[in-house]
Amino acid sequence: TAPGLSIASTYPNNQYAALSGTSMASPHAAALAGLIRSTNPLLKNTEVMDIIRKSAEDLGAKGKDKYYGYGQINVAKALKMADQLNYSLIFWSSLLEREMIRTSQKYVGQ
Which terminus of the chain is more solvent-facing, meaning fewer CB atoms within 10 Å of its CB: N or C? Predict the structure, then answer.
């Protein structure tokens, strides 16, 4: 869950209004995904989503629930997790494999 309640937003006639809903929350979630990828560009989209879910602060019923999903996003924790994956030996082989594929695709046909 990203902040989505009473978010200041632009409004017609050069005004601002406090709006709520997924339209207010989705930019926060998208921004976090972008920050995670800027911290670790080798992550796949599924890995970015996993980091967002695992780093969220659980709200409401324990675990994923219908009101809060996985919880409230935690930017600092998510970025720390993304940065740690840069150096994790557990992911070294998959990172190396992805880099080899990217490199070979870059030079195919040259």
Answer: C
For residue 72 the two structure tokens come to 């409230």
- Radius of gyration over every alpha carbon of the chain, rounded to an integer in angstroms: 18
The answer to whether the beta carbons of residues 32 and 90 sit under 8 Å apart is: no
Distance CA 20, CA 18 (A): 7
CA dist 105 → 18, 19, 87, 99, 100 (Å): 47, 45, 24, 10, 8
Let me know how long the chain is: 110
Q: What is the pLDDT of residues 62-71, one digit of tens each?
A: 999 888 889 9
Which residue type is seen at 43? L
